[in-house]
Amino acid sequence: MRVSVSNLTFGYDYRTVLKDVSFEIEDGDFLVVVGNNGSGKSTLVKCLLGINPVPDGKVFLDNKEINQFENWIRIGYVPQKLDDFNYEFPITLNEIMHVSRYSKVTEEQKLALLDRMGILELQHENINTLSGGQLQRVFIARALINRPDLLILDEPTVGVDKENVEQFYNVVNGLNEDGVTIILISHHLSPGNANYTHIMQLREGRSFLRSASDLHAGGDSRHGV
Fold first, then answer.
1. What proportion of the chain, given as a percentage, has pLDDT over 70?
2. Are strands 30-34 and 75-78 parallel, antiparallel or unpaired?
């Protein structure tokens, strides 16, 4: 999915959070957005998801103005923490996938997705018995069950141990290689994980976009952060 943002300014009450943010990514790109707390990362995500109202002509999804965009099932979103989720509620992984499924996905396709996420053997487990890394993969599977074209991940490795972080990036890199456009929000850069094509830094609400080839002149255009 192509994403285009043009001179987007957004704020709450009298506080401006995003200041003339502009960037474009093409179908199949992998964008990492980095910035300190309060830099506007979560606000930008909410603008891309249509949660924050933005003026016409500022945000386009597949060349369609966001206020006219209707096919939201094409976008998968994994927040840093699922605020609408009761982690103590006795629900199984299978039940989560069932209530999250809106498109015509067969049982075989669902099982194949769980297998790819490395959680097939957990399908009958209650989520309150899972580790942080396992839960993260459950949330990604939940976002992918409807086969989106764009996947937005908000600081997805917070609280996840090193081994599961490596597994996470293996999964996400593979999804991107299969053609899924990725936008990954991160608090800081870390070496050798995401095979990104672009990186954008937010500083005091302003955006600074560079391609991987710009950052690594003369090398491969996909490098880790």
1. 88
2. unpaired
User: And the tokens for 213?
Assistant: 């080839």
DSSP string, the chain: --EEEEEEEEEETTEEEEEEEEEEE-TT-EEEEE--TTSSHHHHHHHHTTSS---TTSEEETTEEGGG---GGGEEEE-SS-TT--TTS--BHHHHHHHH--S---HHHHHHHHHHHT-GGGTTSBGGGS-HHHHHHHHHHHHHTT--SEEEEESTTTT--HHHHHHHHHHHHHHHHTT-EEEEEESS--TT---BSEEEEEETTEEEEEEHHHHTTTS-S-B--
- Choose from 54-68, 81-95, 104-118, 162-176 the range with maximum mean pLDDT: 54-68
- What is the rounded CA–CA span in Å between residue 22 and residue 66? 15
pLDDT of residue 197: 93
- Supply 217's token pair: 């002149």
pLDDT of residue 40: 92
Instruction: Give the C-alpha separation, 9 to 58, whole Å.
Output: 9
Per-residue pLDDT at 98? 85
* Predicted TM-score (pTM) of this structure: 0.87
Tell me which residue of 29, 35, 30, 148 sits closest to 21, measured CA to CA: 35
∠ Cα 34 35 39 (to 5°)? 135
Q: Which residue has the higher pLDDT, 178 or 87?
A: 178
The answer to whether 25 touches 31, Cβ cutoff 8 Å, is: yes
